[in-house]
Specification:
Length: 418
């Protein structure tokens, strides 16, 4: 055996425990199946000391340690780049971890971050907690008013968070104008693209000609890419290599990684994401339209429906003219309603509790339909004149038959509101 040859030598293993660890058999490498292999490792072996010193993981050309990547995670990262139209991808343990990693990588003491008032709630608490502790300031801007965003950008503004549509109340912003403004001001943009999922619109190509896009896309893979309601994972996708490296080095220093079996689960679900997304979209629109005819419902908040806040901006970005599915464009299977103010919180809670197919639970994108009532005054710092008075209830539509879901809604509406 040469000095560089580190294949197991049976002659060195005379006792069973050693033989079982250093058994020399290696299976043939030409196996191919529908799903990628699952590679689990903390330790990665090197052929010799020179190889140990020369291997590089930052460009994904080789492997050095399990936390920095395996064939399984590299494969998932590349497929997510294809999904969102990016060039580089990082995997993190959750969607919130993606948000936190981007903010921690790109912001320093004295910097300012701007956040839409209807953003995913934990993004706000991150800014109010950890970022504030590090001397990073923040402002909340009106996502429905580009002029308000423009007025809040200062010389200290380094990062603008975008969300399309907003969390819970589903306002669809003028994303094109927001990104164009930030580019003119030289401010980095980060989009929470969990709703769009790479399917409703292309975050790095908003105009369809390659001239305008966000700088970073943060995605909760927990939702549609996983599709099963059983995986927590997030991703950070970019097209700019220097920006990617800033985030990647912070990702390394924070020690973030994902489990191989979780990566396997997302890889297995990705081929069906478009089928699931469009099916849940169709069912959600059917149910949202039906709910708009119910007397207890004061307002339906679904960006693809005419009259919803920001519908024209959704139409511009996700509508049929942009290559959307069928004649109606593309949207996620997620919407909210405002229960009329004449019904109190007890009645709204009774409605949610009477649902049998809709389960009470956070998250979305899985096979089971979900419902959550919200107290909007606890979530917004600004007035919401575009919303009717009442209580907001959010629905995430799963893969059940829409007729069964409609019947479930009907019986719960009758039980709670008469």
């Amino acid at each position: 055996m040469t000095q560089a040859d580190h294949r197991p030598d049976p002659s060195c293993a005379s006792r069973l425990p050693t033989q079982l660890i250093h058994h020399p058999y290696q299976p043939p490498q030409d196996f191919a199946g529908p799903q990628p292999a699952v590679h689990k490792a903390s330790t990665v072996f090197f052929e010799n000391v020179q190889a140990m010193r020369e291997r590089r993981w930052l460009d994904k050309s080789s492997y050095t340690y399990g936390l920095h990547g395996t064939p399984t995670t590299y494969t998932l990262e590349e497929r997510l780049c294809a999904l969102e139209g990016g060039l580089q991808c990082l995997l993190v343990p959750s969607g919130l971890a993606a948000i936190a990693t981007v903010s921690l990588a790109l912001l320093r003491t004295g910097d300012e971050v701007l956040i839409p008032d209807n953003v995913y709630g934990p993004n706000k608490t991150l800014a109010e907690g950890e970022l504030a502790h590090f001397g990073i300031t923040h402002q909340y801007y009106d996502p429905t008013d580009v002029a308000d965003l423009a007025a809040r950008i200062t010389p200290a503004t380094r990062l603008v968070w975008l969300e399309a549509p907003g969390s819970v109340t589903m306002e669809f912003p003028d994303l094109i104008a927001q990104v164009r403004l930030c580019r003119e001001k030289g401010v980095t943009t980060v989009l929470d693209n969990t709703w769009g999922a790479g399917l409703a619109f292309r975050p790095f190509d908003l105009l369809g000609d390659g001239s305008l896009g966000v700088d970073v896309s943060a995605h909760a893979l927990t939702k549609y890419p996983s599709g099963g309601g059983d995986v927590l994972m997030g991703s950070i996708v970019t097209r700019n290599q220097p920006l990617h490296m800033r985030i990647k080095l912070a990702h390394m220093r924070l020690g973030l990684g994902v489990g191989a079996n979780d990566a396997e689960a997302v890889l297995r679900s990705l081929p069906s994401i478009a089928l699931r997304y469009h099916a849940q979209d169709r069912a959600a629109r059917q149910l949202a339209r039906w709910l708009s005819t119910q007397s207890a419902v004061a307002q339906v908040l679904h960006p693809a429906l005419p009259g919803a806040p920001g519908h024209a901006h959704w139409q511009q970005l996700c509508g049929a003219s942009r290559g959307g599915e069928g004649l109606e464009g593309v949207a996620a299977g997620l919407f909210s309603v405002v229960i009329d103010a004449r019904f109190g919180q007890d009645a709204v809670d009774r409605f949610c509790d009477h649902l049998r197919l809709f389960r009470l639970g956070y998250s979305w994108g899985g096979p089971v339909s979900l419902v959550v009532p919200y107290e909007l005054s606890e979530m917004r710092s600004r007035a919401t004149p575009h919303l009717r008075a009442g209580t907001v209830v959010r629905f995430a539509i799963g893969l059940e038959d829409p007729a069964d879901l409609q019947a479930d809604l009907a019986q719960a509406l009758h039980a709670a509101f008469g």
